[in-house]
Request: fold
Amino acid sequence: MAKDRAQRDDYTTPLRRLFMGIVVLCLLGIFLVWRIDSPRVERFRAQVVDAVVPSMEWAMIPVTAAINLVRDFQSYQRLSEQNQELRSELRRMRAWKEAALQLEQENARLLDLNNVRLDPRLTYITGVVMADSGSPFRQSVLLNVGERDGIVDGWAAMDGIGLVGRISGVGPDTARVILLTDASSAIPATIQPSGQTALITGDNTPAPAVEFLESRELVRPGDRVVTSGDGGVFPAGLLIGQIAADPGGRLRVRLSADFERLEFLRVLRYHSAAPIRDPGGIVGPQRPEALLPTEEAADG
Amino acid sequence: MDSAASRLWLMRGLYLFLALTVMFFHLLPLNTQPGRLPFPDFLICLTFAWVLRRPEYVPTLSIAAVMLMADLLLQRPPGLLAASVAIGSAYLRSAGPGMRDVGFVGEWTTVGVVIAAIFAFNRTVLALLSVSQASIGPVFVQVVFTVLAYPLVVAFSQTIFGVRRPSAVDVATVGTRS
Reply:
């Protein structure tokens, strides 16, 4: 029996090795293509995710619901406390609602006086969070709105209160949002009330770090952080969070958006800078085509 | 003969289905907060456990396709981890038959070394090509967890799916040429 197998292996092992080598070379080739021309491969990845994940959605929803049910079940012990907290919060929200209504009326009156039209730039598209990034090193979520709903790479995503992240990767039906807590996320921001600009970079912790801050003494924990609109990357004035100092003394941002319960995200439409399509005539005037044949006739 | 062939294809399909289930659980939006402990890489454990026991159930093409799909869905550089897992599984496939006598501990150490080599290769190539990647701490923790999870995956495969090394009985029924 062993001899039979050895004879068969003599024929198949080199073939199998060759096949293995080809497969490994193809995979490494894909990796090199990704390294060289990343946007194309990332578009391919967005299309693959777009094809695969929505088909799993029908199974994800009941499982997520069941797990959330178990989680809520565990919090039943604190039911009466939560009730009290919610009641007091509701009272505070009602007071704020009154103030907001009055301000809205005053705003309408003043705008009317000025005959001003508000910029329709900041309309939004709402999406539902479908899936996680799947990896503990990458913080991103998948939304169920995509190219078909008009989503474009680079737009900001907020939940009801504060900034959540940025769109990076759009398929026909889905879009990926890179969260502020991801290590590759960097948002230019302004710190109120001192008005200084800084960069909010994520580093895989729940509170992103504040970098490139000019004078640290002017900033105190509790200051508001809003986007600055620098570079036309994001619209200005979106709330990010509040400054906090970690035990090492480093300044971090405590995010206002509720990252534990991301369900509905708003993607803000923002057309800031026109995309560059041609060199803009820097390279030299284009020779008119009609001249060429007469030159040749002169030569000949 | 027919039942053997259909069982072969059934188990290959089962491998693909298990891989899809693992990825499905990775993608569930349960916790969007960072800072959780990295979970072990069950796909690699499953692949290696099956390659050492029944290499015919995990053909190279299956492994490559599953790992490439995992790379694409889990936001990793596509193709790199897939290539290293394919090389690792080819090595284990050739070393598999010789590992019957060393017992489980020997097998576990070999698999542990191969997993560590795979992750080290991954990090080196990414560092050489200046691709930004996670810091070494969580990745090291993930390697340790993966190696620790390997016996669980082996027990799971052996008891629930019956993926064991071919014993004398199986060889007698399958080994004849027909």
User: Anything to note?
Assistant: Helices of chain B lie at 2-27, 42-53, 60-73, 80-95, 103-128, 136-161, 168-174. Chain B touches chain A through 48 residues (CB under 8 Å).
